[in-house]
Specification:
Number of strands: 6
Family: Belongs to the ArgR family.
Structural class: alpha+beta
Number of helices: 6
Strand order of the largest sheet: 3-4-6-5
Subcellular location: Cytoplasm
Number of domains: 2
InterPro entries: Arg_repress, Arg_repress_C, Arg_repress_C_sf, Arg_repress_DNA-bd, WH-like_DNA-bd_sf, WH_DNA-bd_sf
Shape: elongated
CATH class of the largest domain: Alpha Beta
Organism: Clostridium acetobutylicum (strain ATCC 824 / DSM 792 / JCM 1419 / IAM 19013 / LMG 5710 / NBRC 13948 / NRRL B-527 / VKM B-1787 / 2291 / W)
Keywords: Amino-acid biosynthesis, Arginine biosynthesis, Cytoplasm, DNA-binding, Repressor, Transcription, Transcription regulation
C-alpha cells in the first residue's frame, strides 16, 4: 500500500504543481486512495520531497535531484567523521566538532530537514541548534548520536 501511494505521490507532483499537503491528500483521494494529512506528511518526509519555486512564482513539492541526494549523503559522511560530541542543554543542542568542521557538519544537519529546529549557528568547532522544545532537543540529540554511532 505504501509503495503504491509513494509511486502515486511522485506521479502527482510530476504532473501538477502541488503546493500543500491538503492538495496532495485531495489528489490521492481522487485517485481512490484514502489518506489522512498525517499519512501524507509522513510520506513527504520518507520521500524527502522539497519545495521549489514554480514557474508561476509559487512553491510546489518536488523530488530532490540525484546531485542533491549525493551531496546530502556526502555531508552526512562528513558529519559522522568530524563530530566529537553531541549534548543538550534544555532546548539547545550543542555539537562539538574537530577544528574547522562545524560549518560542514551544520550543513549536514540542515540537509536532514529535522522537525522542530528553530535555527542553528556554527562557529569553528561548535554548532548551536535551537529547538522548539526540550523534547524536540532530546530527539535531535538521539538522531545525531546515532549518526556518529554514539
Amino acid at each position: 500500500m505504501k509503495v503504491s501511494r509513494h509511486t502515486k505521490i511522485l506521479e502527482i507532483i510530476n504532473l501538477k504543481d502541488i503546493e500543500t499537503q491538503e492538495e496532495l491528500a485531495e489528489e490521492l483521494r481522487r485517485s481512490g486512495m484514502e489518506v489522512t494529512q498525517a499519512t501524507v506528511s509522513r510520506d513527504i518526509k520518507e520521500l524527502k520531497l522539497i519545495k521549489v519555486l514554480s514557474s508561476k512564482g509559487r512553491y510546489k513539492y518536488a523530488t530532490i535531484s540525484p546531485t542533491e541526494s549525493f551531496l546530502s549523503n556526502k555531508l552526512v559522511t562528513i558529519f559522522a567523521q568530524t563530530v566529537l560530541n553531541v549534548d543538550r542543554v534544555n532546548n539547545m543542542v550543542v555539537v562539538k566538532t574537530i577544528s574547522g568542521s562545524a560549518n560542514a557538519a551544520a550543513e549536514a544537519i540542515d540537509s536532514l530537514n529535522l522537525d522542530g529546529i528553530a535555527g542553528s549557528i556554527a562557529g569553528d568547532n561548535t554548532i548551536f541548534i535551537l529547538s522548539r522544545s526540550e523534547e524536540t532537543a532530546f530527539n535531535i540529540v538521539q538522531k545525531l548520536k546515532k549518526m556518529i554511532n554514539e
